[in-house]
Amino acid sequence: MCLPNIKMINPKIKFLNVTKSYDNNSKNEVILQDLSFEIYAEEFVCILGPSGSGKTTVLGLVAGFIKPSSGNVLFNSKDIIRPDSSRTLVFQEYALFPWLNILDNVAFGLTTKNHKNNYAREKASEYLNLVGLSAYEDHSVSQLSGGMKQRVAIARALAVDPEVLLLDEPFGALDQQTRESMQTELTRLMTKTKKTVLFVTHSVDEALKLADRILIIGGKPGKLLFDTTIAATRPRDLNNYQLVTIRNKILDKLSQPDLFMGSDI
Ligand code: ADP
Ligand code: MG
User: Which among 68, 85, 87, 201 could disulfide-bond with 164, CB atoms 3.0 to 4.6 Å apart, if both were Cys?
Assistant: First the structure.
């Protein structure tokens, strides 16, 4: 007999009929409408969609910065009411503090978590080691390349040991070569730390390389248009037949005229 997989019974994150609207110039604009999906523990989920389709809003809802207008966003079966260290966010632009050195940037979230400074620094050091930047503890932010800054941002987000890591186009500002090495690095880190990940990207190939599952949000207002699981092992060859088939389906979805596409897909 096959026992049900516990990870599949209790979703880590659940969107239940979520609608989000904003008041823009006294006009109520519905951004996300009736969005329902579940994300399970340790899944690496990539979210694709045109600019303005509400991807950052989805991450904001999970982070707890944004409240749904109706419906529920649940984390471990409870409504998300505020941001906390169980769900941390990495932005496209390196949100590091230029007045702190690299170690203190990573220790930042830990010191505000009522930990003693020594503990925070030890933890920060451990996570800098994890992203391969031990030699840069004393450096200033301006001494680091773009890719290194994003590794620091990821180390900082991981150092508080979140259950869910939220990444909003984290490699969008990097050159192609750095981006590819960061993708490999992130795959390694996630296999090791076993986090649940929501990763927003504009790149179909990046999603195909990284994701256990790909969601597409699009349309006006934004709805879930596509949800597929990718079983291929990593590292992935994007010429693999399964990935080529999924890629074609995604490109087909993204090219539908009613999608109000941004120009950058
Ligand atoms: P994406 O990340 O897919 O580009 P966003 O979630 O950032 O999309 O934004 C979706 C839409 O919601 C956009 O049209 C944006 O202008 C609007 N929007 C986002 N945040 C706010 C806000 N705080 N107030 C008003 N409108 C907003
Ligand atoms: Mg966005």
Answer: 87
Domain boundaries, the chain: 96-161
Q: Write the CB contacts of 248 (distance below 8 Å, at least 6 apart in sequence).
A: none
Give the model confidence (pLDDT) of 247-265 as tens digits.
Answer: 999 999 999 866 654 433 4
Is residue 101 classed as helix, strand or coil in its secondary structure?
Answer: strand
Cα 119 to averaged position of ligand 1 atoms, centre (Å)? 38
CB-neighbour burial class of residue 150 (10 A; exposed 0-12, middle 13-18, buried 19+): buried
Per-residue pLDDT of 195-239, as tens digits, reads 999 999 999 999 999 999 999 999 989 999 999 999 999 999 999
* Cα of 140 from ligand 1 centre, angstroms: 33
Alpha helices in the chain (DSSP H): 6-9, 55-63, 102-111, 117-130, 146-159, 176-193, 204-210, 241-254
Q: Which atom from ligand 1 is nearest to the alpha carbon of 200?
A: 2
Full-model pTM: 0.92
